[in-house]
Amino acid sequence: MIKLYGHELSGNSYKVRLFLELLNLEYEWIRVDLMKGEHKSPEYLALNPFGQVPLLIDGDTRLADAQAILVYLAGQYGGDRWLALEPLPLARVVRWLSTTAGEIRQGPESARLYHLFGATGIDIDRAYQKAEYILTLLDKHLSDREWLEFDRPTIADIAVFPYVALSGDGKIDLAPYPNVVAWIDRIKQLPGYVPMAGL
Ligand SMILES: N[C@@H](CCC(=O)N[C@@H](CS)C(=O)NCC(=O)O)C(=O)O
Questions:
Q1: I want to staple 38 with a disulfide (CB 3.0 to 4.6 A). Which of 29, 33, 152, 174 is the partner?
Q2: For a pocket test of ligand 1, which of 8, 53, 104, 120 has the largest count of ligand atoms closer than 8 A to its C-beta?
Q3: Strand, helix or coil at 27?
Q4: Residue 140: which residues within 8 A CB-CB, separation 6 or more?
């Protein structure tokens, strides 16, 4: 059975859990206690040298990084529904996966780390600026479409969703971004959707 190593407050763990649920796949959830530093233990580092969650094990396949895991699960179990393989459509999805490691991480995800976990070394004003930038962009992008790419949800939506939807944890109000709010609601209506704390 698929094993997912994660933590319940980790948005990156959640996006993989959400996708497993949307795919209706059975899996075992293995909690890694980040507060106790379990992710830096020799046993865990042997599984994931990056010392982070999420981590997925599926038979002989061991994969870290939420975006990489979404790509794997979409290709392995999702048919052609969640990820297009032709060069240009694929590139359009990957652009959003990259955004999760860029503007979204620097913006809403950092603001959440600052307010919810008291993370040090975060410039909260810069995080707010980055958040405003990406949320404004997303709101404009979603003004004439239901999903980030194509006429159906893809792993682009699943990857971007958690930290945008969790903006409130970072004291970011989504009210000025009505198209983003409507898109969040559409994702919450998907069959198999599961929430996490804060959503
Ligand atoms: N690029 C990774 C980032 C994963 C990540 O930042 N995980 C956090 C929890 S959301 C973590 O494990 N933090 C502990 C650490 O980095 O020491 C992904 O997208 O999965």
A1: 33
A2: 53
A3: strand
A4: 179
Q: What distance in Å separates the CA atoms of residue 186 and residue 41, rounded to the nearest whole number?
A: 39
pLDDT, tens only, 118-129:
999 999 999 999
CA–CA separation, 126 and 181 (whole Å): 23
Cβ count near 19 (within 10 Å): 22
Residues shown for the chain: 199
Using CB distances shorter than 6 Å, the residues near ligand 1 are: 10-12, 34, 39, 51-54, 65-67, 101
Asked if 11 and 109 touch (Cβ cutoff 8 Å), the reply is yes
The pLDDT confidence band at residue 148, using thresholds 50, 70 and 90, is very high
- Other Cβ atoms closer than 10 A to 27: 18
**Counts for the chain of helices (H) and strands (E), in that order:** 9, 4
Radius of gyration of the chain (CA): 16
CA 133 → CA 57, 75, 77, distances in Å?
36, 31, 34
pLDDT band with cut points at 50, 70 and 90 for residue 38? very high
For residue 53, give the ligand 1 atom closest to its CA.
12
What is d(CA 81, CA 135) in angstroms, rounded to the nearest whole number? 26
Give me 93's structure tokens.
């999805």
